[in-house]
Amino acid sequence: MTKYFFLSIILGLLFSISVLAQNSDLTWQELKKQQTEERVSLENMQKETLNKMVEVQKLQLDTMKAESSANANDILLLVEKQTLERKEIAKVYSEERIKLLQTHAEERKLFLTNEQKK
């Protein structure tokens, strides 16, 4: 699921570069505002998704604790599995933010190049 989301983010960012290349009427301030909005949107989406994941993990843990057949080792294994899941999603989110920042840098570079040609 996250890999497909990551792919959609990259495609969206590439589209935004092509739009910028075609729309040279965008001012520097508008570009900075647009990029800020994109960063905030990505960050909010990531926080929301992570919060939902933590809620599900907490529910899983509470459910396991309530089971009479669950022992301390089972609970420990679940906690370790959940920790690995959170680390993996943090890695994916970091990669998404890096790609976004790289795309924004390319957009700013393209903007400045276009400004110099005017």
List keywords for this structure.
118 residues, mainly alpha, rod-shaped
Overview of the molecule:
Helix content is 90%, strand content 0%. The chain is mainly α and 118 residues long. Helix 1 (2-22) runs parallel beside helix 3 (72-117).
Give the topology, please:
Elements: H1 2-22, H2 28-66, H3 72-117
- Computed Rg: 21 Å
Q: Unreliable segments (pLDDT under 50, ≥5 consecutive)?
A: none
Main sheet record: none
Principal-axis shape: rod-shaped
How many strand units?
0
Helix/sheet category: mainly alpha
Which range does the strand content fall in? under 5%
Helix content: over 70%
Count helical runs.
3
Distance between the termini: 44 Å
Q: Order of helices and strands, N to C? A: HHH
Mean pLDDT: 85
Please sum up the structure shown:
The chain is mainly alpha-helical.
